[in-house]
Amino acid sequence: MQKVCPMLLGLAMAAGPFHAAQAADLEVTHWWTAGAEAAAIRVIAEAFEKTGHNWIDGAIAGAGGVARPLISSRITGGDPMGATQFTHSNAMNELIEAGYIRDVTALADAGGWREVIFPPSLLDSCTSESKLYCVPSNIHSQQWLWLNTSVFLDNGLAVPTNWPEFVAAAPKLRELGIVPLAQGRQAWQQQVTFNVLMVGLGGPETYLRVYRDHDAEFAAGPEVAEVFAAAVHARDMMVGSNVQEWNLAARMVTDGAAAGQIMGDWVQGEFEQAGKVIGTDIACLPGLGVHEYITATGDAFFFPVSSDAGTVEAQDALANVLLSPEVQVEFNRAKGALPVRSDVDISGVSPCMKRGLEILSSGNVIESVNTLVSPDTLGRVTDLVVEFFSDTSFTPEEAQEEFAKIIATAD
Amino acid sequence: MAHTVRPSRLLKNLNAKIAAVPMMLTAVVVFFGFTLWTVIFSFTNSRMLPRSEWVGFEQYERLWSTRRWLVSIENLAIYGFLMLVLSLVLGFLLAALLDQRIRFEDGFRTIFLYPYAVSFIVTGLVWQWLLDPEYGLQKAVRSLGFTSFTLDPLYDPNLVIYGVLIAGLWHGSGLVMCLMLAGLRGIDEDVWKASRVDGIPAWKTYLFIVIPMMRPVLVTTLVLVTAGIIKLYDLIIAQTGGGPGIASEVPAKFVFDAMFVSQNLAQGFAASTMMLVAVIFVIIPWAYLEFGGKKNG
Amino acid sequence: MADATFTHTTPRRIWPADAAGPRPRKRFSQRNIIIYSLLAVLALYYLLPLYVMMVTSLKGMPEIALGNIFAPPTEITFEPWVKAWSTVCTGLNCDGLSRGFWNSVKITVPSVFFSIAIASVNGYALSLWRFKGANVFFTILIIGAFIPYQVMIYPMVILLREIGIYGDLSGLVLVHTIFGMPILTLLFRNYFSSVPEELFKAARVDGAGFWAIYFRIMLPMALPILVVAVILQTTAIWNDFLFGVIFSRPTNYPMTVQLNNIVNSVQGVKEYNVNMAATLLSALVPLTIYLISGKLFVRGIAAGAVKG
């Protein structure tokens, strides 16, 4: 009896749905190091460890710009991690084409992902030659203006409902010693701000003609000139915001040192951690309250090809954990993102996220700039925008001319 | 110290040749081969992975029409020139002061040298904090009553490179001091005696007699400082991240970002080739004179 | 630290009690006052950052928010140090800098050993056993010292991948050995060039070969420059950031990379005190080395680098 029991136990474990024959270590790289993000990744890690594998955390601080090169050079260098977070983008395509990334179509078929994942474009963007290469974990949209309502109300100002009203309120805020627009100075954040202005004020047609059609003549034209004119307003409004990190910019908003911030919806996690209630303390204006269009891309996990059976098994386990309804709800609540499944309970999400879902369902969805242009083109746009936002002597006309040049050779 | 090369058999010095194999491999494969590889691939349109599809000078044309590259070059020129001059001047000044038979020489020398022991990451972080207007020196001076005192070079695009220079000098001048001091101590006592007898003032002795005699040390120092300047990267990463805007970008960071962030390898290769060309223009004549032309050390 | 305890003979003049410089002088001359005040002002520039790091790392966050960076802590707390060492988080790893410390040790010790072993033999061969073409290799090597690392990173990744040690500790050791070679070889070459020729010739006459002379005569003589090399390499490798980031995986990250990660993962407010403590911790090893052996370093430099 004494000998049989452990064997039976072993059998039972092997037969269980998640329990692997042997526990494998799975190194997962990601760049989720801000407070709310770290709390969110912990949800995944804990659920994953319940499957009997070990989560080796490979956090890389400093956002995607720092992490992406490290991740891709490790994959191409022959020392791949077990799994990695990555944003949907063209950046991954070359790795996929070169055969470094595992095809997870079989897992998707077995798990019926195509039926539950919403919007389906999430899967399309990491499908190559009808094979699936990623597991989406959450939906993020970037096109949001967040406003601290008490900053306005306490000073007898109306809370703006769109960008022009916000611009109009800026001089009053300045008089009160409040920075109108909080802006983290890292390059990617300034790129986000600029492209949010492009979508929100220029509208989806402008945005797509520039980034999808690479219409350089249009990019030099009056519609885009308006975007640059708005960027000058933004530039003036962000004077005095000298922080680097986006969560420190968010902190300026919650502290009342700044009135608003243009940032993706992941910033909600930081607002909530500071004790603010989204929807009342913090107002949100999708598409800057002008053109209510949002991107529906988000983060996804990729699995580098591995010849080790244990690793493959652990990858399978992680893929299933990522999409399990419980993890989807809990993870996305912590992160301030939308779940990728349409069939999970979203009653806990913030009013702003509900707005986001409505916009998604109404079809006002645009493709992210990350999937429209190459990292190279985006890098050049980013360099331009970063210089423009920091150098007040850089005229919008000059900047637009440079911009049109980039678009002319964009890919 | 000439060991004249006698007409040699092939096997002569065989052990020396075997012992030098790692060096030869490093020189040929890494420094020469890798560099050549990079130069060759700068003429392709490689993106994330190297591809051999030739595009001629396209990458270079684009590079030289990129504002950020031009800013990077300008910054390196300013930083490089000032760093070279100031670290030599400051290093020499410190060494000369320490060489005055002072008390606590050990203590002072340690104080001047210790920054060299810490990494550029640490250097950058510390000076970022010190030069932070809301937290560092500016706030401290203002709290003393000088409310209009302004010291925020890291937030001023026109001054940021000088803010980096302050940190760079802090880090590197101690080593220069150390080398200079070694050089000064190598000067024969009689030189000073003779100049005193002739009534030549001390500063003149330094300038016209001692410094020319220190040529070997100056060369070593120049090599070390220059090699450090071209590689300027960690300090920028930690102190400014290239900001504000693109005001403190440097070529090494441009290369890294082009290769790994924008995933345009060829563009990064083209930029690094340009850095290499600049280096070669400066170094080759010097290296030839110093090591190639004569047969003794 | 009294000067008298050092009775070294390599430099031409006894060091440093018999220091050079113009003389004679009086104790309290106007000149001395100028010298000391200049030194004091300069020392301030060098000490300021260390002082600020120290006091900030011993303060609590409220005090930092209110107070002056130069003010000494009103209430000393070692909590930031404990936190920086053992509990501060990057992502889910909440074991502070302690892990990075041991990684740095594992990287630094073998890298220092191999790079010096190879470079000293190089310098020895280059200075005393000149063979045809040696100078060509050496010239390439020296030019290599100026080539930005970025130029060689990508092929290096490919090379390590082909050998199969990319991401391993051994790969990183190889990278440090290669890139440390130019400057170290230069140091050793210059040093061995200054060895009296008669010594070398006598050994040859006695029939000693390449390795015998190296191990029995040259290496023991090279002690001052070995010290310099060890100090230079230990600090350079300990402080390396770029190679650590590119050629190792997160579980092997050296302390500098972890420091940058910790300082840049802002959760909530920026904890200046913890960051400062972390910064000091990561600088502790090279600082200690300089404080203990600074004098040997200076003397070794005098013996080696001075001769061109």
Automatic annotation (TrEMBL), chain B:
<feature type="transmembrane region" description="Helical">
    <location>
        <begin position="76"/>
        <end position="98"/>
    </location>
</feature>
<keyword id="KW-0813">Transport</keyword>
<keyword id="KW-1003">Cell membrane</keyword>
<dbReference type="InterPro" id="IPR035906">
    <property type="entry name" value="MetI-like_sf"/>
</dbReference>
<dbReference type="GO" id="GO:0055085">
    <property type="term" value="P:transmembrane transport"/>
</dbReference>
<dbReference type="Pfam" id="PF00528">
    <property type="entry name" value="BPD_transp_1"/>
</dbReference>
<feature type="transmembrane region" description="Helical">
    <location>
        <begin position="110"/>
        <end position="130"/>
    </location>
</feature>
<feature type="transmembrane region" description="Helical">
    <location>
        <begin position="269"/>
        <end position="289"/>
    </location>
</feature>
<feature type="transmembrane region" description="Helical">
    <location>
        <begin position="21"/>
        <end position="43"/>
    </location>
</feature>
<protein>
    <submittedName>
        <fullName>Sugar ABC transporter permease</fullName>
    </submittedName>
</protein>
<keyword id="KW-0472">Membrane</keyword>
<comment type="similarity">
    <text>Belongs to the binding-protein-dependent transport system permease family.</text>
</comment>
<keyword id="KW-0812">Transmembrane</keyword>
<dbReference type="InterPro" id="IPR051393">
    <property type="entry name" value="ABC_transporter_permease"/>
</dbReference>
<feature type="domain" description="ABC transmembrane type-1">
    <location>
        <begin position="73"/>
        <end position="288"/>
    </location>
</feature>
<dbReference type="InterPro" id="IPR000515">
    <property type="entry name" value="MetI-like"/>
</dbReference>
<keyword id="KW-1133">Transmembrane helix</keyword>
<feature type="transmembrane region" description="Helical">
    <location>
        <begin position="159"/>
        <end position="184"/>
    </location>
</feature>
<dbReference type="GO" id="GO:0005886">
    <property type="term" value="C:plasma membrane"/>
</dbReference>
<feature type="transmembrane region" description="Helical">
    <location>
        <begin position="205"/>
        <end position="230"/>
    </location>
</feature>
From TrEMBL, chain C:
<keyword id="KW-0813">Transport</keyword>
<feature type="transmembrane region" description="Helical">
    <location>
        <begin position="107"/>
        <end position="129"/>
    </location>
</feature>
<dbReference type="Pfam" id="PF00528">
    <property type="entry name" value="BPD_transp_1"/>
</dbReference>
<feature type="transmembrane region" description="Helical">
    <location>
        <begin position="274"/>
        <end position="292"/>
    </location>
</feature>
<feature type="transmembrane region" description="Helical">
    <location>
        <begin position="136"/>
        <end position="157"/>
    </location>
</feature>
<protein>
    <submittedName>
        <fullName>Carbohydrate ABC transporter permease</fullName>
    </submittedName>
</protein>
<dbReference type="GO" id="GO:0055085">
    <property type="term" value="P:transmembrane transport"/>
</dbReference>
<feature type="domain" description="ABC transmembrane type-1">
    <location>
        <begin position="101"/>
        <end position="293"/>
    </location>
</feature>
<keyword id="KW-0812">Transmembrane</keyword>
<feature type="transmembrane region" description="Helical">
    <location>
        <begin position="169"/>
        <end position="192"/>
    </location>
</feature>
<feature type="transmembrane region" description="Helical">
    <location>
        <begin position="33"/>
        <end position="52"/>
    </location>
</feature>
<dbReference type="InterPro" id="IPR035906">
    <property type="entry name" value="MetI-like_sf"/>
</dbReference>
<dbReference type="GO" id="GO:0005886">
    <property type="term" value="C:plasma membrane"/>
</dbReference>
<keyword id="KW-0472">Membrane</keyword>
<dbReference type="InterPro" id="IPR000515">
    <property type="entry name" value="MetI-like"/>
</dbReference>
<comment type="similarity">
    <text>Belongs to the binding-protein-dependent transport system permease family.</text>
</comment>
<feature type="transmembrane region" description="Helical">
    <location>
        <begin position="213"/>
        <end position="238"/>
    </location>
</feature>
<keyword id="KW-1133">Transmembrane helix</keyword>
